[in-house]
Amino acid sequence: MIKHVLCLVSLSVTVSTCSYAGGFSLYTEGSVSELSVFAAGSAAEAPDASIGWYNPAGLVLIKNNQALISGVGVFPRTMLTGTSTFTTTDEFIDIPPYKQSFTNLRGGRQAGVPALHFAHPLGERATFGLSVVAPFGLGSDWGRTSPVRYSATLTSLETIDLAPQMGAYLTDNLSIGLGLDIQFARVTFNAVAGSPAAMQYLQSLGYEVDATTLDSTSDNQGNSMGVGFHGGVLAFFNDKHTRVGLNYQSEVQHRFEGESILTGRLADINLTDPNTVYETHGLITNDVNLPRIVTLSGYHEVNPQWTLLGSVVYTGWSSFKATELQNVAGYSAELGIQVPLNVVSHDNYRDAWRFALGSTYAVNDRWVLRAGVGTDETPTVYAERSVRLPDTNRWAVAVGTHYEVYPSVAVDLAYVYLAGLGRSPLHKTQVLSETSSNRIDAWAKNTAQLGGVQVTWTPQD
Q1: Alpha carbon distance 326, 342 (integer Å)
Q2: How does pLDDT run across 191-226, given as a tens digit for each residue?
Q3: Which fold has domain 2-457?
Q4: Closest to 150 in 3D by CA, of 260, 263, 18, 12
Q5: DSSP class of residue 202?
Q6: Model-level pTM?
Q7: 3-state secondary structure at position 51
Q8: What 3-state DSSP class applies to 334?
Q9: Distance in angstroms (rounded) separating the CA atoms of residues 2 and 381
């Protein structure tokens, strides 16, 4: 009987990145000055050297050498309420499902997002720039003992984008810019493998086991480097007091390679030692395309003190369809041995839109107040939304300030509050094998707070 039930054991490893908004994009976190207006006017304003990232055509507005360092703290709060149901089927045995209920289960993961920007004018008509940013990232951590552990535990994505760029005037009223993106990325996608329904059934027959007897941790990490580009145009009107900017950031393709580690009884040939480790060092994914982004921005000076800003941002998330992991360290119940497995996670993201309006007000020559509001559409679709990304549409309120401490040194501060538009429903069955599946029926409530500080140095002649 025990041997027959153990043949129903399956290994589940899922891949995704859960963040607090708009998929796992860190669009506003490219600089604190842009964060303070929720990136309203980001491709047209050019408040500092960070314009090279948002639209390199705007670098022509930076007339002096300038360098800035920016840091944003992200404090998400994701709470799940619902049930998790693990089902194992067999043609000879009626195995009851393994169910767990949870209320306000928290999985948000705090993070820091740094950025560096530099601009160097090359005469009166062109400017060179360099940006180091983290365009995508963050993650979730539901814990290795949580009710959703068979779907995901720790999931994270970290990216660093090194972007040299150039902007130049074509005419007095039109500039263009182009940048190269050299992007490094690291993913971590962990889960728990086990067979709680089968173990629960054995327990009901009097065996000294519990539902978590075979629970084993599956830790997977990979690294990749990809190359892309970004480029834009900036049109000037009304003696440059009105500007319209358009920027395009290309897809960046990654193929992650790394290692997979299975720790627990499923890593032991006899399924008895909970400390056994089985590793594979040939973990590799399919080609994963991080999305293209198109930004249209407007900038208008109402008077010398007051400026209006706006942006419409399109993100081509539909390029992110599925992730396939090859050579995952796993256990084959049919063979009774540890073997590399292939695992596929379907997401089928849709393209998404972001809208932002903002304003700046110059209190005096040294002090500027900044604020913005906006909405951010989730790329997740109802049929595929899972515990790994319980995302929903968002609204945002941003405030900030710019203060010139010295003629050569300025400080920017920003705060953003993000909240979901209602609760995010999750009703997804994840097929783990021919005999096992795990279903999550839950509601997610998402909020986040962001705070940032930036220091800008502009050497004086």
Answers
A1: 4
A2: 999 999 999 999 999 999 999 999 999 999 999 999
A3: Porin (2.40.160)
A4: 12
A5: H
A6: 0.90
A7: helix
A8: coil
A9: 40
